[in-house]
Amino acid sequence: MKVTFLIQPKLQPIGNSDEWELCDPFTVRVEDGDTTEIITVPNGFTTDLASVPRLPGAYLVFANRGRRSAILHDYLYSQQVDRKRADRIFLAAMENEVGAIPRRLMYWAVRLGGGAYYQSHQQANEAEREAP
């Protein structure tokens, strides 16, 4: 799988939180075998980028890495793309911006700890569909 960032993301912080808002659409190309998919994260999408525990060692190793990959990954989760596929796309996207060892550690962190975040988006989407 290969991920190419076609447009660089433009972000602005939201208040004093760890949330960021996309100022313009952010577009990537995902090539997987014979299939090519263009994914556009829309203007106004909010992300916490790469959520890193505030543990000194973890924060020093992973903070501010893979920002574009994290935006894409958060968007895929919000759209309820199959979690395993979203995580594989995240791993492939990080090849553009993160070294091999941190990339693998970040991938396994989302595989092991991303379920709750994924489910929160699933519940929000279900509540939105059920609203009158």
Radius of gyration from the alpha-carbon trace, in angstroms = 15 Å
Report the biggest beta sheet as strand number plus sense, adding barrel if it closes.
Answer: 3 strands, antiparallel
Shape: globular
Oligomer: single chain
Tell me the distance between the termini.
Answer: 40 Å
When the domains are counted, the total is: 1
Which band does the percent of strand residues land in? 15-25%
User: Structural class of the secondary structure composition?
Assistant: alpha+beta
Q: Kindly report the spatial arrangement of strands forming the biggest sheet.
A: 1-4-5
Residue windows where pLDDT falls under 50 for at least 5 positions: 53-62
Number of beta strands: 6
H/E element order: EEEEEEHHHHH
Helix % is: 40-55%
**Count of DSSP helices?**
5
Q: How confident overall, as mean pLDDT? A: 84
What does this entry look like structurally?
The model is unreliable at 53-62 (pLDDT under 50). This protein has one domain. A hairpin with a 6-residue loop joins strand 2 and strand 3 (20-22). It has five helices and six strands. 46% of the residues lie in helices and 20% in strands. By secondary structure, the chain is α+β, with helices and mostly antiparallel strands. 27% of the residues are buried.
Tags for this entry?
single chain, alpha+beta, 3-stranded antiparallel β-sheet, 5 helices, 46% helix, globular
